[in-house]
Amino acid sequence: MNLPEPEPWPAHLDALAAAPGHHTLLFENDAVRILDTHIAAGARTPVHTHRWPAALYILSWSPFVRRDARGEITLDSRTVAALANPPPALWTAALPPHSLENVGPADLHLISVELKQPAPAGGTAAKA
User: Fold this and answer.
1) Could you read off the pLDDT of 23-45 as tens digits, one per residue?
2) Looking at the domain assignment, is residue 128 inside a domain?
3) Which CATH number goes with the domain that contains 88?
4) Which of 9, 12, 26 is closest to 109 using CA atoms?
5) Does residue 126 sit within a domain?
6) What confidence category does residue 117 fall into, taking pLDDT thresholds of 50, 70 and 90?
7) What are the b/e assignments for 92-127, b being 16+ CB within 10 Å?
8) Is residue 50 part of a domain?
9) Per the structure, how many domains does the chain have?
10) Is there a domain that residue 26 lies in?
11) pLDDT of 86-114, one tens digit each?
12) How much is the mean pLDDT over the chain?
């Protein structure tokens, strides 16, 4: 199987290597990698990456702040109206080196289905 190249970030920054206390591998093959991501209330992950785009299934939600590798805020979910009451699933592009801090009162818990292969030609995004 001919796979696309993942983003060129160093392997030691991969979520499973750099932030294993927050990411658990559930399944992996040539097409997908499925991670269980859990960030307790008040916790902050080490800097890590997500090399592939992913569909995120939300098990529990909490506001968060994402920072780049320099510590600069790139996203504060509290400032995004759509994330005040998020849908049960979201899409995310591959993420460069970042950390994520759970700034809310509840745990942030989601399942991430990372897509290692591009969508088939002519395919369309499914909507719920």
Assistant:
1) 999 999 999 999 999 999 999 99
2) no
3) 2.60.120.10
4) 26
5) no
6) confident
7) eeebbebbbbbbbeebbbbbbbbbbeeeeeeeeeee
8) yes
9) 1
10) yes
11) 999 999 999 999 999 999 999 999 999 99
12) 90
